[in-house]
Amino acid sequence: MEWLIAAGLHPRANATTLKVAQDLGARMDYDTGHARYCMEETAARLGIDKSTVKRHAAVLRELGALAWVVHGTKTNIRRALGLKGYAGTATVYAAVIPAVYDRAMGHQVIGTGYEARIVVHQRKPVDNSPVDNQPSGSCAPPSLTVVKEVGQVQVESGFNYTPRKRASRETESLPDQTDQKRSSSEGGPSRRHPLQVARDIQIARRVRALVNWTQTERLRRLAYVLRPFIDRGLDSHDIAAELAGMCLGWRPKQPANYIRAALAEQAAHDAVLAADAERLAGQTWRAATAQQAADLASLEALFGTGPAEPVRTDDDRRAARLDWNLWPDVADHYADDPDDAIDLYGERLCTYAVRMDAQSKSRQEASYV
């Protein structure tokens, strides 16, 4: 936590955030990596307001250092246990090591969940097996593997920013994180940096204030569907202007799904236009090529000139000078056009070819005598 705060990964992370993290760490079960929230008791122990505890717990979640395991509700847990009295269901958090820390430290994570092992710089693996329930244990809980994004981050054994009223039932999700990883490996967009996600949320907050029909949508879900606009470099006012023309005179019940569908339709339309433009460009190029060939043929027929000889390159010269056993051809070429032969074969090979040709002719004359 000290490293995460010092790295400036969250603008609101400070010493109070560290105190809240230390309080949770002191009460954490190091066999499971879980800790009860206990907001009121934490506020009393630290001498701060409950709203401050809530705010800095949210900062820890946004940093990726906490993940929800169980949402606290008003359900009477004592009745479920067959006991008298009332006690609401407690909120349980999981301590998490963010992936940005593992990357900065050079850790290679092998496995998923709390059974993962960490290899540092390809050296001897460190087994993060459960240790005694003591804060001073030598092993820290490993990173939870992010597997799904439903307008918020969800993890294998915990989750962040899931509304309490929807935590116990399935919801229609936006494209999940596994699809994003797959698209990244296939050449698609890579995973978003936490700082970029925070910036997306800030832009979405301003957009939601400017466009009234988006105000019923959850912030993180809205930020997710606005990514195509943000990646184009548009600010909140530009995005609001784009959204203003999407639906006039009515309010969609699910703004995020509507925006996603509208963007998909626009992308399909743009793809059709691009294909048409490419086809037209191909036809234009073929027509221009055919016309150029026809014009060249007309000029050749008119002036009786053939196509120009290709320009000789250094590669042609190097290839011609490799085999000196072809000196008879070199000698014939030199006899027909000395300048061109020297340019192609070089002076040394031409001299050698002329000398060998002279010796060959002398031996032939001697044999006749």
- Mean pLDDT rating: 76
Uncertain stretches: 121-159, 161-188
By helix and strand content, what is the structural category?
mainly alpha
Number of domains: 3
**What's the total helix number?**
16
Q: How would you spell out the order of helices and strands?
A: HHEHHEEHEEHEEEEHHHHHHHHHH
Provide an overview of this structure:
- The protein is mainly alpha-helical and 369 residues long.
- It folds into 3 domains: 2-185, no CATH class; 194-260; 314-368, no CATH class.
- The chain is built from 16 helices and 9 strands.
Properties at a glance:
369 residues; mainly alpha; 3-stranded antiparallel beta sheet; 16 helices; 9 strands; elongated
